[in-house]
Design a protein that fits this description.
58% helix; 9% strand
Length: 369
Amino acid sequence: MKRLLLAAVAFVFALRLSAVETGGAFDWNGIAPSLKRIAGVEWKAEKPPKARVVVFFDPSTPLSQETLRLLDTICEQSRSAAPDFAFAAISRQSERRTKELFLNGFTLPVYVETKPERPVWGEYARTEVMIPFVLVEENGEVRWKGSPQELESVLHEMRSGTYRYDTQIKLESLRKELQNAIQTSLPQVILASADRILTIRPSDMIAIQAKLYVYESTNQPRLALSLLREINAKDKANADLRTLLLDYLIRNGEYELFQKEFKQACADFSGAPDKLIRLLAFSLQNAPFAWLPVREARNATAVLLKTYDGKGGRYEAIAHELAAHAACLSCDIETAVREQEKALAAQKGTEFEEQSRMVLNYYRSIQPK
């Protein structure tokens, strides 16, 4: 998640060269015969989908696996919240190369092109600089296009009826201004351009990243921290923004603030286990040794186990793995072993089985005899 968030600002450089833009045409029915599904679950319903989310990705890029897992999570959540949205991911590479990403257990349907000249990529993604990118198509028209990090909030707006097409068109115009501002390398010009975007969309990740880039490159850490705390105060339900704050605190050695913000995040997202699980996974993976408030971490894993235990699927496995990790940090090795055994059982036959077994063997090796 951290690398995905830090890469988001680079998306602005793709805007000028895009082969397809918001408001442009996108004919899914026209390209579908040229695609072959190699993973995931095909969208099925009595009526055609209201809209379709299409992800263009390249397995050869370093973040492809991480990006697809993020999008698969969004797909899985959206199918229950808005079943009239269909999803598809289109690979730039061959079937063999794409399958090297280990797509077992995916909900997100993953496709490859059947024609070696790859006409779909040629028409819609040939000139894209930033890969992956996502578009939402409705009635043959692109209603939104952006980076994977923005998709979840955009789908929420579309489901709630608060999404505004004209606002998106204006945002894309302002992002082109931001692109030009970044190319000037003038800090005040970049900040002013980013602020114009944030006036319209306060949680716009690209604009936020642009401002953070200026503050950090000009050695103004206090302004960067102030920005992150301000935007999180305005949008307390945004897990990506909260993760960005926690990441900043870790990278800048803000131990006491990290402890405070982690505890607050556990409290704020205790009623949203799908977001809590992402925040906890990020913190357990990235926080330095002895930074994590163990009591709050274990309470958070209790929420996750209550939600996902016995449900099957990847979330159940992750919940048990996080519970094992948190138990190990609190020197409760017996519980760590028990939870990791459950995680391993939930990941039988998947690409994660061997790694899960290695972790279990480690917990067993330090278990008191």
